[in-house]
Amino acid sequence: MVRRLAGVAALLWLAGCGLPSGDYFGAIPDVHDRPRHLRFCNQGEPDYVDPAMATSTTALPVIFALFDGLTLYGLNGMPEPSLAERWDVSSDLRTFTFHLRHEGKFSNGRTIDAYDFAYQFIRILHPSSASPNADGLEYIKGAAAYNGNTGRVLLRAQGGLAAGAHVEIVGAAGKSLEQWAKDGATPPDANVRRGGKPLALRDLGAAPGAAYATAPAGADVTIIELTGGPVSMASPDGQVWAYVFYDQGDGAFGWVPMAELDQVPSALVDYEVRELPKRHQIGIEASLEALTADDAVTRPTVHVRGADLLMLPELMGMRIPDRWTFVVETAEPTPYLIAATPSRPYRPTPREAVSRSPRRWTDVGTIITSGPMALEAWLEKDRLELVRSKTFWNPSLVKLDRLTVFSMDDQAANANYYAAGGCDATASNNVPTSYRPILNGERRRYLDYAVKPYNGIYFAWLNTEKLKNRHLRRALAYAVDRKRLAGVLHGPIPTAQFTPGTPIKNLTEAELTLCGVTRDQPGVALIEVAGEVCYVPPLGLDFDPEKARAEWALARQELGADFPKSLTYRYNSGAEAHKIIAEYLQQSWKETLDFDVTLEAQEWKTFLADTTQGKYDMARFGNIGSLTNAESEYLVLFKCGGSNNRGRYCSPQYAALIAEAKKLTDRRARNAKLAEAEKVMIEDAPVIPIYIYVQDHLRKPYVRDLGLNIVDQFPIYRAWLDPDWAQHPGRSTSGEGPNAGYSTASEAAR
Amino acid sequence: MLRLILSRLVGGVGVIIAVATFSFLLLHAAPGGPFDAERALAPQVQRNIEARYHLDDSLVTQYADYMGGLAHGDFGYSLKRPMSVGEIITTHFPYSLTIGLMALLVAVGLGVGMGVIAAWRRNTGVDYALMSMALLGISIPSIVLGPILVGIFAFGLGWLPPARIEGPASYVLPAMCLGLIYLGTIARLARGSMLEVLGQDFVRTARAKGLTERAVVWKHALRLGVVPVVTYLGPATATLISGSFVIEKLFGVPGLGGFFVEAIVNRDYPVLSGVLVFYVAFLVMLNIVVDVVHGLLDPRIRSGR
Amino acid sequence: MSAPTATATAASRSLAGDAWRRLRKNRMAVICGGVSVFVILACMFGPMIAGWFGVDATSIDPELGVTPPSAAHWLGTDTLGRDMLVRILVGGRIALGVAATATAIALVIGVSWGAIAAYVGGRVDYVMMRIVDVLYGFPTLVFVIVVMSVFALKSIFWLFALIGSISWLTMARLVRGQVMSLRHREFVEAARALGAKPSRILFRHIVPNTLGVVVVYATLSLPSVMLYEAVLSYLGVGVQAPLASWGTLVTEGSSQIIAYPWLLYGPGVAMGLTIFALNFFGDGLRDALDPQTRKD
Predict the structure, then answer these.
(1) What's the pLDDT tens digit per position in A664-673?
(2) DSSP conformational letter for B221
(3) Chain A residues in contact with B55 (beta carbon < 8 A)
(4) Is C101 left (phi over 0), alpha (psi -120 to 50) or beta?
(5) Any idea where the domains of chain C sit in the sequence?
(6) Which residues pair with A111 in a beta bridge?
(7) CATH fold of the domain at B94-264
(8) Helix C156-167 and helix C222-234: axis angle, to 10°?
(9) Cα Rg, chain B, nearest whole Å
């Protein structure tokens, strides 16, 4: 035995540790007994499966299977109608009218209507729900004021403002809001109420006895919604009901008759308010020029008592003309809104479950879902079991009876488990870097492995507050030979452009025409809407040692004694690739510019804190787009003072071009203007783009219709297994997709 | 004996309070917060979240809340997932405990045996062979040993699953990987102290009385020879059963170790403090057990004071 | 009276000489000592010699990239085309430095802490051991994160200090256990009866008798210390890229085991061999120093 073990061990070591032989990476189990059960190796545990709370990418495939939305992802990663049968978009791209189907249902049998979408906006944007996804709705009218707890509806006409006017608070109790913030205090909230008697929190219209939570007499509750409002349900019994939040323990939400909320602690507090700009007023028709002019108007402030103010959901850009129509209004033209409709904010969650237990309603016992699959079991850090939903309105869409999602976070553990036949497919980026050269054909080619471009860019921020000199930054950017580096990293696509996309040489003829480029043109192009919109980012400062040295000399001249003696490049430790890139950059700058750069590894959160606070010279970063949209996903980073502008880049010229672009509703013209802006930015070199991310997947050859697309979002419930796969060699694992180069997994090698 | 245990328990409470305080202070002093991410949140979104989780309260208030909760056995709520810290511990500790106990069983059983035999046959081929094996276990870090074990037993021989806990067989590889490290340490500690004991008078006396060498070694000498092993086992057991992050990650085991490291990375204050307090409570208990066992093994220790 | 009394009190005039003689007779110990010395010398002077041939630890050569061992690069090259042998030799300096520091601190602090606690006993023992308990539970990683962000300690000195600060705890408990069982032994009572000062009794009579366990545990903790250094460099303390230590080389190499196994074998074997040699040398040293072996 010992000898046999030793023999095996020696063999494994010499042969590179037992790589599976054959065309596929590991065992291909027989799936005749489970053609409708997919086992999926996710990359780690979902943080939440609540669309309002989840932020991890690992949660997305699960959420998208559990919750229905206005639209669902198609195999190509683009939205396909679901709860919204169809939609109209206004010519100014600011009003989006969704016509809802009547068949949508939650798993408790309740029909989904427009009020559920309104509720999801409340959940995401109301301060009390503390949703980290509030950022995702910032383009909605009034969203900032609502989320910042400053937007209010004026209940009584006064000071020249009509009743029902939408206003924002600028001061309270004699102090401006800035002053309140400076003092580290919170102004009194006019939405707070108290009950003289205990408040029985319950479903709308239910008897007090049916309460699931009670706020004691005199306890603070916060009004969130009132029955009968423009986007709220009608009262069932003629009296006004209030939906309130009671902050105790995990918190609870519930309806109580408004009459019971008889104490208004801040009734007499003096608030200084002014009307919200027209841009954020709901249902107002105005030209974009008029809105821009209105932005500049100084609106007078009015003093109002707390009793006359309430923050209500109608402050947010939505309207419900009837139960089956949901209208979304945005502050500015938002060409990417439809592309965003499969995302979390447009997947309603059931008020009756959330209210009872805001954080825990997704527990297996209490969860109410609406999507193609239902949650059967959730074993933390091990797996989730999903089964076909019995209530989903469109059962023919669902091919799976059961979906098992494994939650291991180690890449090697996942890849090994896949090789042993434990799962049928892996999430993207689940293959250790060290397996790559083996899997992708440098040594041997496995047919079940695919590497594809991904909607993300790896780059280095240059802190423009420390590296103020433009020539200095440009020199650093010119000095890096990305192509040579990409060879070391096995996979990613080297680039000097910031907005990523598909290499132009790989586009289809139709896409070339759409983008207005020729195949021999260098660089990439981003297909924003298949067949309709294309964005061609400007070329960046690619490797050119001559120019690098010329810029370097200019910088030296301009800076004189202020020329830095050395700089530090930061990266977060933990990923081998970050370090290799850092070492490579260090040597590049040494070789080309004879300049010493120190490398510094930091733990993740320290790294984030330091880069956010501008305590660095240069630092690696990554930006992944959730949509294929240059403006919302990439160019937004360079907004002056933006929370993600870690380079602290602020260029009036760039800002002006972006502002101009935002006024354009013709997408071709708009994208041309955006590209102009990106050109200004990339020439100023606040960033050094390095490579475009790739996604890589392992999928057994019998897996069918598991979409493969640039945003890496796929309707997992539409996949199925083909037990007789060997007889059907032509069938693809990824389904049909219009994106070129995404159709088959077998063309793994690049 | 009872008094000893009682006084140690009181001390243990002090230790736990100290550890909870340190971890609270350090975590709040650490840069970055639980909701920092690659894509930063807008400031007001961040503020709303902090308010909701009472992270905007003064540090004193937060500390009072936290310690008050601890006093009631309430570890609080994770900031990053919909679970209370108590639930995390009760759900995931059993995995770590099982693997840890299996590893411990192997490590103690084999380790002590190997150490005693090596000491008995000191400086012979047997000694060198056993100690070389022990050293191999120590010198190969788990991150290296894990993949090798998977290569051999999962892919080479196909006996055991490469990852995840699906049944009793799944525990073998992680327990083996974890146990080998401790096995080596225990074997070498046992050898070292057995050598010491074998040179003592009472062993000579026993030999002189005509007892067989076997009886001398296993009956008389071993009792004292394992004292350092027992001492070492206090902290080692606490570490073992509270879960090894590396092993859990390598084998996809949903144990407690992973939560601990994740909590540090995420700045999930309640989870980190909770798991740490849980671990320290174990450590304190085990160290009391160790001292009691010492007294039983070696009456001279007890008589002192 | 017993043997320990005789040796311990008979002063140490020939202790070193005897030990040296016994050590030389132990062939395994001699070989392992030789290996240890060789490794230390190689790490000290190897990189310099390689430098004469134009090979250094940091210059990268992406065109060359990762290559298996060859005549030009005996242990192959890493992903960026750097010679593994030189990287390992340079990395050994850190690893050995860390090992030496941790051992020294464990010996000095750990042994005295445990010995004093056990010998004095009572309340002092109680408090000292509770401090050890607290330090066991002390969230060291978080501490390092905080210290790093506040003071930005990049110097290698802090790496050593941090590693030393945690490496003495188990040692203290082990020594305490040993001393507890030794302090009422006949030779100690005898020394006490002769009027020896407590400190003399403790450090001249008792502590030498714990050396067996002390030496064994000191050498045993080397691998964990070397790997702990990799964790600290993850947090940004100590060695920074492009330099590497054995800990970081092994950690990184283990992730490459499938595709480029030599990236693990080189540093792994270097580290394993050194630990192996130091452990057996430690054993030999223990045997040679053991007062009891004289009579055997």
Answers:
(1) 989 999 999 9
(2) I
(3) none
(4) alpha
(5) 38-293
(6) A105
(7) MetI-like fold (1.10.3720)
(8) 130
(9) 23
Cα-only R_g, chain A? 28
Q: Is the pLDDT of residue C159 over 80?
A: no
**Residue in the block written with tokens 């370090």:** A579
Cα(B263)–Cα(A589) distance, integer angstroms: 37
Q: How many residues does chain A have?
A: 750
Which residue is associated with the tokens 């690893």?
Answer: C95
CA distance A147 to chain B (A): 7
pLDDT score of C12 more than 60: no
- Nearest-CA neighbor of A634 among A624, A642, A643? A624
Q: What domains does chain A contain, in order, with CATH numbers?
A: 2-15+24-80+352-449+697-749 (3.40.190.10), 191-265 (2.30.30), 453-694 (3.10.105.10)
Q: Would you call B231 and C223 a contact, using CB atoms and an 8 Å cutoff? A: no
**What is the CATH superfamily name and number for domain C38-293?**
MetI-like (1.10.3720.10)
Q: Which residues have a Cβ under 8 Å from the Cβ of C69 and sit 6 or more positions away?
A: C75, C76, C262
For strand A402-406 and strand A37-41, is the pairing parallel, antiparallel, or unpaired?
parallel
Integer Cα distance of A117 and B160 in angstroms: 49
User: Could you tell me where the DSSP H helices lie in A560-689?
Assistant: 576-593, 604-612, 630-633, 652-663, 667-684
Percent of chain A with pLDDT over 90: 71
SS (H, E, C) A12-79: HHHCCCCCCCCCCCCCCCCCCCCCCEEEEECCCCCCCCCCCCCCCHHHHHHHHHHCCCCEEECCCCCE
- C-alpha C62/C-alpha A484 separation (Å) is 7
A103 is written with which tokens? 């068949």
Residue A198: predicted pLDDT:
94
| HSE-CB of A164 using CA atoms within 13 angstroms | 4
- Structure tokens belonging to residue B217: 């070694």
With residues binned 3-state (H G I as helix, E B as strand, rest as coil), the percentages for chain A, rounded to 5, are 30, 25, 45
pLDDT of residue A385: 97
Residue A9 has pLDDT above 50, yes or no: no
pLDDT tens across A65-107, in order?
999 999 999 988 889 999 999 999 999 999 999 999 999 999 9
- Which helix (H) or strand (E) segment holds residue B177: the answer is helix B172-198
Taking only Cα atoms into account, the Rg of chain C, rounded to an integer number of angstroms, comes to 22
What's the mean pLDDT in B62-73? 89
Distance in Å, alpha carbon of B166 to nearest chain C alpha carbon: 25
CB-CB under 8 Å, B35 with A45: no
For every residue of A116-179, DSSP letters joined together read: HHHHHHHHHHSGGG--GGGGGGTTBTTHHHHHTT-EEEE-S-BTTB-TT-EEEEEEETTEEHHH
Residue whose pair of structure tokens reads 């509770």 in the numeric block: C130
CB spacing of B152 vs A9 below 8 angstroms:
yes
Q: What angle do CA A349, A222, A109 make, to 5 degrees?
A: 25
Model's pTM, two decimal places?
0.88
Residue A582 makes CB contacts below 8 A (sequence gap 6+) with: A569, A571, A599, A620, C241
The answer to whether C290 faces chain B, any CB pair under 8 Å, is yes
Cβ neighbours for B232, distance < 8 A, ≥ 6 positions apart? B185, B186, B189, C170, C173, C174, C217
Q: Residue A139 and residue A94: Cα distance in Å, rounded?
A: 10
Are A435 and C65 a contacting pair at CB < 8 A? no
Cβ count within 10 A of residue C231: 17
How many angstroms separate the CA of residue B119 from the nearest CA in chain C?
A: 11
DSSP for C160-185? HHHHHHHHTHHHHHHHHHHHHHHTTS
Contact C80, C60 (CB under 8 A): yes
Structure-block tokens of residue A531:
């067949």
Strand A720-721 to A703-704 pairing: antiparallel
